[in-house]
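[Automated response] Your request has been received and processed.

Submitted sequence:
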Amino acid sequence: MRKKLLILIIPFIGICFQSIAQGDLLITPTRVVFEGNKQKEELNLVNIGKDTAIYSISFIQYNMKEDGSFVTIEKPDSGQMFADPFLRIFPRKVTLAPREPQVIALQCRRKQEMLPGEYRSHLYFRAEKNIKPLGSKEAEGDTTALKVELIPIYGLSIPIIIRSGVVNVNSTLSDLNIENRQDTSIFLKLALNRTGNISVYGDFVVEYTPAQGKSYEIGRLKGVGVYTNINKRNVNIRLNKTPGTSLKNGKLKVQYISNEENKKINVYAEAELEIKN
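Generated structure:
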């Protein structure tokens, strides 16, 4: 009896918001926004693995949940608009040798009937694996055993955003609370609230001011966004205590700021939490 080969394809999808790598693929940038007169963007891919890899490129649609996770969707929610009808990519499949770079061209084609606000889709990079058919040398042999081979398929996606017409956004911070966990870690929990017709995206910086002494940074969280399908996102920021100190009888100041390199930092929102214990 010939050996039976059962191949299970296990997808791994990474959603990211600087450079990012998942599996053996490195992508720069990891977030693209078309606004103003911008029409083109180039994405740089690099195969950082040891083997030649093939990647197919397509669009996928996501909704963000309040905990920051994503779910795939087929149709937009009320008030949500997909960007892929106005986007063109070339090429749609690349073969990369180890350490080989590749440039992907992304073009935005706006139309007059576009509504004010934000259009969003995600560009999806899927690794393709070569699966040897039954009858190859590896599959030959007389045995009653069933061979199961697990083949991971890596997927990586980045948001592509088009902003059209008059846009506005405002963000606030609320529900600040300190959480002490059993592993002795300390987290600042809060809600990032968004209003307006576009998403917001930035970094968190947390400073602690003791009752006596100067303020110093004890926490930072990069690349946190709230997309237009939700108005609030719950955020957990790990706090780094200085050895020999404790967070008592002081004040926490948290700022939500812009994270664009080589540009003036804008403060989108800030809040304070008094600590009395």
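Summary generated for your ticket: The chain has no helices and 20 strands. The longest strand covers residues 146-164.
If you did not submit this request, please reply to this message.
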